[in-house]
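User: Good morning. I'm curious how FE2/S2 (inorganic) cluster would be positioned relative to this chain. Could you predict the structure with it bound?
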Amino acid sequence: MANNKQITVKVAGRKQLNEDIVGLTLVTLDGSPLPDWKPGAHVEVQLNTGSGTDQDAVMLRHYSLCGDYTCTDNWELAILREQKGRGGSQYIHEKIKEGDVVQVSIPRNHFPFKSDKKILFIAGGIGITPILPMIQQANNEGLDWRLVYLSRERGRMVYLDRFTGYDSSRIRLNGDVEDGYCDLNELLSTCDSETAVYSCGPKPLLDALEKIHAEQKDAGWSLTIERFAASDAALDQSGSFDVVINSTGERIHIAEGHSILETLRDKGIRIKCSCRDGVCGTCETGVLSGIPDHRDSVLSEEERADNNYMMVCVSRAFTDELVLDL
Ligand code: FES
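Assistant: Good morning! Here's the predicted structure, ligand included:
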């Protein structure tokens, strides 16, 4: 279950990393150490926009911690300005400045890194952010790692200075414009059963990796991904069912084409949410009976099988009824 503890931090540094990505350095107000975190972790940033309805005046956005995972002096985040987003990244780019104080969650990790023997990191664009500390850990532990960093153009790549000190033969930079599209089939055909592939990046990249992973099942390599956008399964809202609010006994019908989250919010039942795409974990809700049809990209296979929690922004039901712990 998500830990909702919040801490207050100050923006100690702000740097434009390329025309669309801004980097923020966060510290505590009194200089005390920040909580520990592990590679793959992210924090939820609370943005008090002071606009919109009460419910929407506070935007919650999730950003990977991309700095040194052994350092508790500061946290680093990198935020891509999303032109077609819902306003959170625009707000940060336009309003957040050095010295501002913001509330953030303690780190959460839905993209944990294990010290496998051989590792292939595939980062697409801003997806480099959770990968950077993973590379740091892999290198610290002397693991056999490789990175393929994909971008539309090489000039848009960020944090290249972090690679100085690493064996450059482990790193391949691929700009579509300069180098052509990376042949993922060819790249993954080099992986054997001891290889763990970790990837974060745009939906087409992650969809392609999942497809190739299914096709190359016999090769035995593992794939762990982190999504920033909804998967195809999350976008499918077919089928209808009922949910029962455990505390009141109220039964609410979830019609085809509507999510549990939006239906309950329309009825005045507030559930904390952020991405609404099944990728952040904010709307995690307890399930007391019934079987959820998990469509999120957050829960592990084991957590899905337990059926104790579900992401109500995208997940649906295999049973006619779900009783939710609300
Ligand atoms: S709001 Fe992000 S997973 Fe549901």
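The longest strand covers residues 6-18. The chain has a mean pLDDT of 94.
Let me know if you'd like a different ligand tried.
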